[in-house]
Specification:
CATH superfamily of the largest domain: Dehydroquinate synthase-like - alpha domain
CATH topology of the largest domain: Dehydroquinate synthase-like, alpha domain
Low-confidence stretches: none
Strand content: 15-25%
Radius of gyration: 20 Å
Bound molecules: nicotinamide-adenine-dinucleotide, glycine
Helix content: 40-55%
Number of strands: 13
Structural class: alpha/beta
Number of domains: 2
CATH architecture of the largest domain: Up-down Bundle
Number of helices: 13
């Protein structure tokens, strides 16, 4: 097992990474303060892993299980209320501990419930998708969706521990696995060129889900995310680089209606666009963009957006993104591999040329 630390003063916490950590009774138990626990999962993950987690808890006075239906469409205020209803009915006190077992959807909803129940209770993340292990479980962003916008209702609320059992990745469907890999590669592109080189060399092992390679990829991703979050917890500057490809990606997701392409798939095509835009500005070689596109093909991820989104529609949708600040579109580009920057000077003409292939 390897342990990383997210360094946030009195809100610092460990990230444990290893195999079969869900079978280690000492690990999770040491972060539970009182005798009360709330386990939140969904109806896909619970049958696979909830019993392991329960076996780790030891004797507790009160354990409440909340099993939500699976899917992004249930990342709602209704699901959040369902957790709080159970917690209130079972009379959990301020010393209770909420544990999220699942992917980013469960982690984000549970985190928001933990942030707001009695103004904040102990919270542990047990992420079970690759995306949630390398991204959403670390850094304290919690949220539910509003019908008018994704992740629009939420809070910054850090967990007291993140427990990453890489053995859980064995059951992840291939598309979900590939979508998580997109976020792994993102760290190499934005801030860790040696990691990008390592990923290109080790992609066959990762795609074969070899555990040693997976553990290393998860650890290096979490280390990069922890470093960025430690420097800019509330996204007032640096943390924005974590959004490489996301503004393009959100436009793809919105154009298609959420659910057709997975988030990581849209981000993959978005990162290729951001790299091509960087190359058109002379910051990257076009050969680096081509080689990234070829890596995406190997990973089974889309290298271009769907052909049926016109440049005008694309630009309109990008203008509605959360990353628009005071009317100007902020995009993450690359000055070089491993060196992201945020720009707010993209012109419509530049975007038209990029998206229209002109
Ligand atoms: P998800 O939570 O929907 O999980 C994907 C699918 O995999 C689901 O069907 C889930 O039930 C299933 N699953 C989970 N673990 C499994 C396992 N071990 N074996 C088999 N199936 C398993 O999606 P996700 O990609 O994990 O997360 C996406 C969510 O994360 C989005 O809502 C997004 O907004 C959010 N997110 C949050 C942050 C953040 O910083 N908080 C960052 C990125 C994404
Ligand atoms: N996933 C982006 C962030 O955590 O800031």
């Amino acid at each position: 097992m390897h342990t990383l630390h997210v360094d946030l003063g009195e809100r610092s916490y460990p990230i444990y990474i290893g195999r079969d950590l869900l079978r280690d009774p000492s690990l999770i138990a040491r972060h539970i303060r009182g005798s009360q626990v709330v386990l939140v999962s969904n109806d896909t993950v619970a049958p696979l892993y909830l019993d392991h987690l329960k076996a780790c808890l030891g004797e507790r006075g009160l354990v409440t299980e909340v099993i939500l239906p699976d899917g992004e469409r249930y990342k709602t205020l209704e699901s959040y209320t369902r957790i709080l209803d159970r917690v209130m009915t079972d009379r959990h006190s301020r010393t209770t501990t909420m544990i999220a077992l699942g992917g980013g959807v469960i982690g984000d909803i549970t985190g928001f419930a933990a942030a707001s129940y009695q103004r904040g209770v102990n919270f542990i993340q047990v992420p079970t998708t690759l995306l949630s292990q390398v991204d959403s479980s670390v850094g304290g962003k919690t949220a539910v969706n509003h019908p008018l916008g994704k992740n629009m209702i939420g809070a910054f609320y850090q967990p007291v521990a993140v427990v990453i059992d890489i053995a859980t990745l064995a059951t992840l469907p291939p598309r979900e696995f590939a979508a998580g890999l997109a976020e792994v590669v993102k760290y190499g592109l934005i801030c860790d060129a040696p990691f990008y080189t390592w990923l290109r060399e080790n992609m066959p092992k990762l795609l074969a889900r070899e555990e040693a390679a997976l553990a290393e990829a998860v650890e290096r991703s979490c280390a990069n995310k922890a470093a960025v979050v430690a420097e800019d917890e509330r996204e007032s500057g640096l943390r924005a680089i974590l959004n490489l490809g996301h503004t393009f990606g959100h436009a793809i997701e919105t154009a298609q209606g959420y659910g057709e392409w997975l988030h990581g798939e849209a981000v993959a095509a978005g990162m290729a666009l951001a790299m091509e835009m960087s190359a058109r500005r002379g910051w990257l070689a076009m050969a680096e963009v081509d080689s990234f596109r070829s890596l995406l093909r190997t990973m089974g991820l889309p290298e271009r957006p769907p052909a049926d989104i016109s440049p005008a529609q694309f630009i309109d949708l990008m203008g509605r993104d959360k990353k628009v600040v005071d009317g100007s579109l902020r995009l993450v580009l690359l000055r070089a591999i491993g060196q992201a920057c945020v720009v707010d000077d993209a012109t419509e003409q530049e975007l038209h040329a990029l998206l229209g292939g002109g």
